[in-house]
Amino acid sequence: RAKADGRNTWRAFSPEMDAAHLERQMLEIELRHALARGEIALAYQPIVDIETGAVTAVEALCRWTHPRLGPISPARFIPLAEETGLIAALGEYVLDAACRDAASWETPVRVAVNVSAMQFARGDLHASVVAALSRTGLPADRLELEITESALMDGPAVLDLLHGLRRLGVRLAMDDFGTGYSSLSYLERFPFDKLKIDGSFVKKITRPETDAIVRAIVGLGDRLGMTITAEGVETEEQLRLVRDVGCGEAQGFLLGRPGPADVIAQRLRRDRSKAA
Ligand code: C2E
Ligand code: MG
Ligand code: MG
Ligand code: MG
């Protein structure tokens, strides 16, 4: 047997099976179990109205804490989940958990859920959303779906899906705007309520060229009736600058880091009693 398996055994140590590849395979196996073991949780980050300071929405962000490896970034495991098809189960889980948490908050803020390109392409997103809303009792207008521009393959199926979701009363946000390869024409073609300007622009906003680009995006989004949110706001100066160029909302470490559901619920309660 050892001889018969010899080739395969040696293959496992060949140069192309490098450390990164092995690590990826290991992570894939672990990810298959992560959901069942309850290792995946949601963190929530506030999105704030720049004028009033009120929290208008919170974004649900996936957190995977592996018992041995510790926290693993979604930037690593979401792409892996997409490649392996695990994103379907993960996406359902996130949608359900986010709607359930949001339904339990006393303040009627919206919850924003990230939808991956693959969930989007599978064709059952509409049914998943309907199911999650009915299971959790969350009103449709309290759910916002964040879709990156790279997920938007142009075509009638995509447009139908987006219009169908909007007919439910769900809001649509275009995420990470400016980082994909799509064009400004996407803004008028697809029925988005909100545009989230990627944090990479906010980082460079003191540069005149970046300022000009962001102003152009904001101008266009405004004309099309969209809310504009600046992502990745970390400093007071950035907050002032994104407000000056016309962004209505901001999100970032300056305004609140992602945290567990009970922490955001507490902040929402505090904001409400302050306003009352
Ligand atoms: P995103 O949707 O653009 O989410 C914003 C990311 O920026 C989050 O990273 C958040 O923690 C981070 N962030 C927020 N404020 C700041 C800031 O002031 N400075 C900096 N440097 N970063 C900030 P996170 O949680 O690591 O998520 C990374 C990406 O993974 C997300 O980007 C999203 O595309 C994806 N992701 C996260 N959760 C899910 C999920 O449940 N489903 C899907 N499909 N994708 C998810
Ligand atoms: Mg997002
Ligand atoms: Mg984003
Ligand atoms: Mg981003």
TrEMBL record:
Domain EAL: 24-272
Protein name: Diguanylate cyclase (GGDEF) domain-containing protein
Organism: Salinarimonas ramus
Residues of the full protein shown: 651 to 926 of 926
